[in-house]
Amino acid sequence: MKHSFLDQYSDRDSFVHRLDPRTKFITTLVFILAVISTPPTGWQAFVLYLFLITTLILISKVPLFYVFKRSLVILPFVVLVTISVPFFTEGEVIGSYNIWLWQVSVTYSGIQIFWNIIARAWLSILSLILLTSTTKFTNLLKGLERLRMPRVMVMLLSFMYRYIFVLVDEVMRMKQARDSRNFGGRRLWQIRTIGSMIGTLFIRSYERGERVYAAMLARGFDGQIRTLSQLRFRQTDACFGIGFSLVLAIVSLINLLY
User: Fold this and answer.
1) Chain-centre distance of CA 214, in angstroms?
2) Domain count, the chain
3) Rounded Cα–Cα distance for residues 26 and 218 (Å)
4) Is residue 112 part of a domain?
5) Is the confidence at residue 209, as pLDDT, over 70?
6) Which of 58 and 106 is assigned the larger pLDDT?
């Protein structure tokens, strides 16, 4: 099957691509913190944040349509989680509705908080997509390790990213085998078949993990991932990190004052 890798545009050459992974990770974290700390009434700040992250996307030469299309995938989950906020937040009532035996009211404060959560989640996802699209995943993991992230978490992220596609291929082969045997019948029979597939997938994943671990030990694996590329923190990284943080601080200060 065709896999959609997170870092499929990481081989392009731009100012953002040439930054150290540690610089990009820290600035992304600072950006997310600035976004989530913005109050619901600060819509001007959200517009400036969107302008800032869009400018960086254009500089990075990553297709703008690709970034925005990928960011829209997460919005249904955010809406599903926050859909009840307008109905259970106290404040000025906009309208009341009868749903079966219950009467629910939509408040102005609830609508404001709802859109604020959507804006925060969308801007945060845009920054994360920019981070992963402009950084090779191996370099990103190496940067996280240099930032003293626990080695176990780095290893888990590494293996998850490498073998999630293998598991997806395994699922597709099992689905093709199931459909070729005229999958149908009653609902109970379908549930039993899907349950058997899940159990088989778990066993195959466990056995594959054991084989991979044995192969790694046979090749002298000692728990540390080594790469040929070395990370270098340059003056450009320091200037970008300080400048980006100052811009976020100015936007937050303007929003606080006005």
Assistant:
1) 31
2) 1
3) 36
4) yes
5) yes
6) 58
Q: What is the predicted pLDDT for the residue at 57?
A: 92
Buried b (16+ CB within 10 A) or exposed e, 10-36: beeeeebbebbbbbbbbbbebbbebbe
| Residue 177 reports pLDDT greater than 90 | no
Domain that holds residue 61: 21-257
Residue tagged 């000692």 (tokens): 222
Four-residue CA torsion sign, 254, 256, 257, 258? positive
Residue of 149, 159, 163 lying closest to 221 (CA atoms): 159
Look at the block and give the residue holding tokens 């790469």. Answer: 227
Task: Give the separation between CA 193 and CA 38, rounded to whole angstroms.
Answer: 49
Tell me, yes or no, whether 2 lies in a domain: no
Q: Let me know if residue 177 belongs to a domain.
A: yes
* Phi, psi (degrees; rounded to nearest 5) at 104: -110, 150
Neighbours of 48 (CB within 10 A): 19
Tell me if the pTM is above 0.85: no
For residue 176, the one-letter residue type is Q
Looking at residue 229, its amino acid is: S
CA distance 84 to 86: 6
H helical segments located in the chain: 21-36, 43-60, 64-71, 75-82, 85-88, 108-133, 137-146, 151-180, 187-218, 235-257
242 occurs within a structural domain: yes
What is the per-residue pLDDT for 44?
85
| Token pair for 134 | 């402009």
